[in-house]
Design a protein that fits this description.
six-stranded mixed sheet; 6 strands; globular; single chain; alpha/beta; VWFA domain-containing protein; Rossmann fold
């Protein structure tokens, strides 16, 4: 341990003025007020339901992460749900979570993993869906849950990246947060998708779900 001294960059005579610890009621009020001033978000959950997601129960892990995410979100945030395999489908349109939470949970319970993987088409479609409801006063985000192995898109990776970058440079930028599942996840593709909006790929490890939620939440 280093001594507290000016030589070590510390003034032993400071601080001279000590502020009292706020009352617990005051601390609670500040925490609640933060939720009021914090920017609210429009979040699209985009889940890979292709056949490869059956391996290692990746689909089960992704669904569980989505459910925990919903529990963690403020009711004033708008949340929607999309799935993709050989095709791309909106399961629950973007809406206030306080009114559509149960609808999203029920849709998650009906999901089955089958078909090919139109990852790049799905990313493009999700960006376009958010752009249709863009509000510069709200944070726009896509949480992408996938193993990243595209097999059937009409669009390619470069096109998906370009769409994200164009949205990133618009009046209402869109964050795309990739969450990778499985040992065989295409990390290169998911990294490229994340970099396009200055985010990073996160691990979908079920043992790490709390940290995952904290990281996702730090973006909005």
């Amino acid at each position: 341990a280093y001594p507290i001294s000016p030589e070590n960059g510390v003034d032993p005579n400071q601080p001279k003025a000590l502020l009292p610890v706020p009352d617990p009621v005051v601390i609670a009020a500040v925490q609640q007020s933060w939720q009021l001033v914090k920017k609210q978000a429009d979040v699209m959950l985009l889940i890979d339901t292709s056949g490869s997601m059956r391996d290692e129960d990746k689909i089960g892990q992704a669904i569980e992460a989505a459910k925990v995410f919903l529990e963690d979100q403020a009711g004033k945030n708008n949340v929607g749900l999309m799935r993709f395999s050989s095709d791309v489908e909106v399961l629950v349109p973007l809406g206030a979570l306080e009114s559509n939470r149960d609808t999203i949970l029920a849709a998650l319970d009906r999901i089955e993993a089958r078909g090919n993987t139109s990852l790049y088409d799905a990313v493009v479609a999700a960006v376009q869906k958010l752009q249709a409801t863009s509000d510069p006063e709200r944070i726009q985000a896509i949480v992408l849950l996938s193993d990243g192995q595209d097999t059937s898109s009409q669009a390619n990776l470069n096109q998906a990246v370009r769409v994200i970058q164009e949205a990133r440079n618009s009046r209402a930028p869109i964050l795309v947060i990739p969450v990778a599942y499985g040992r065989d996840a295409d990390i290169n593709a998911l990294n490229a998708i994340g970099r396009a909006s200055d985010t990073k790929v996160q691990s979908g490890d079920p043992e790490n779900i709390k940290k995952l939620l904290d990281v996702i939440g730090s973006y909005f």
